[in-house]
Write a structure and sequence with these properties.
The protein is an alpha/beta fold and 193 residues long. The protein has one domain: Rossmann fold (3-Layer(aba) Sandwich), CATH 3.40.50.360. Helices cover 40% and strands 19% of the residues. It contains 8 helices and 5 strands, in the order βαβαααβααβαβα. The chain has a 5-stranded parallel sheet with strand order 2-1-3-4-5, sandwiched between helices. β1, α1 and β2 form a beta-alpha-beta unit. The radius of gyration is 16 Å and the shape is globular. The mean pLDDT is 95. Bound molecules: flavin mononucleotide. Flavin mononucleotide binds next to α1.
Length: 193
């Protein structure tokens, strides 16, 4: 199977990348792949709020026609068996890059299609000190509303300090549970809406 990590860090080799490297090696040990997208390398315009004009105008096709990299990222998500959202904590919240993507993902959920619906997801976060829980919660709530399946124990955070020594165990658990969930029959076909 093939999984996707979306890293909204502004650094190539920060703590989020370190966590994603652990995830990648765990997926590979089990014979699976992890694609990694560093969001800052892609151009994603801000949401144009088409749905405020007319709910029916907020569609993937219209969002793809804005002429940026959103279609590429959405199709990567669609083609993956599970997703990991990784964000730095910026003022107790996810990074602006992550939030911009979540706003654009409105077009994927508005039509209640199966582009991302029913996919397992985990959210990880890096901070210098405080704020990971609020940043992670901010992401998890819209993802649930978009029809994704947040895994049991599907979150962890890291600040590079000793007290976060359990992070690696949580990352391994995310990989194990995501592989288990994705291999269950009927999950992808089921209509969750
Ligand atoms: C604009 C900005 C705001 C930040 N706000 C917080 C914060 O509220 N709490 C915190 O602990 N760290 C904060 N940080 C530090 C980052 O979360 C931390 O360095 C993290 O490791 C960055 O992710 P990365 O290592 O994947 O690049 C902030 C950093 C930036 C650039």
């Amino acid at each position: 199977m093939k999984f996707l990590a979306i890293n909204s860090s502004y650094r190539e080799n920060g703590l989020n990348s370190k966590m994603i490297d652990i995830l990648k090696s765990e997926f590979e040990k089990s014979g699976h792949l992890l694609d990694i997208l560093l969001l800052k390398e892609y151009k994603i315009k801000t949401c144009e709020a088409c749905l405020l004009e007319d709910l029916k105008k907020c569609t993937p096709e219209r969002c793809y026609s804005l002429g940026d990299d959103f279609e590429f990222i959405a199709k990567k998500m669609q083609g993956s068996d599970g997703l990991i959202f990784a964000t730095p904590v910026h003022w107790y919240a996810p990074s602006a890059l992550m939030w911009n993507l979540i706003e654009r993902m409105t077009s994927l959920e508005n039509t209640r299609n199966k582009i991302i619906q029913g996919k397992p997801v985990a959210v990880i976060s890096a901070a210098a000190e405080d704020g990971s829980q609020s940043a992670i919660t901010n992401i998890i709530v819209p993802l649930i509303h978009m029809g994704l399946f947040v895994l049991p124990f599907g979150m962890t955070y890291y600040s590079g300090k000793d007290e976060d020594r359990e992070t690696e165990e949580y990352l391994k658990r995310i990989v194990r549970n995501m592989i288990f969930f994705s291999s269950q029959k009927g999950i992808k076909e089921h209509s969750w809406w």
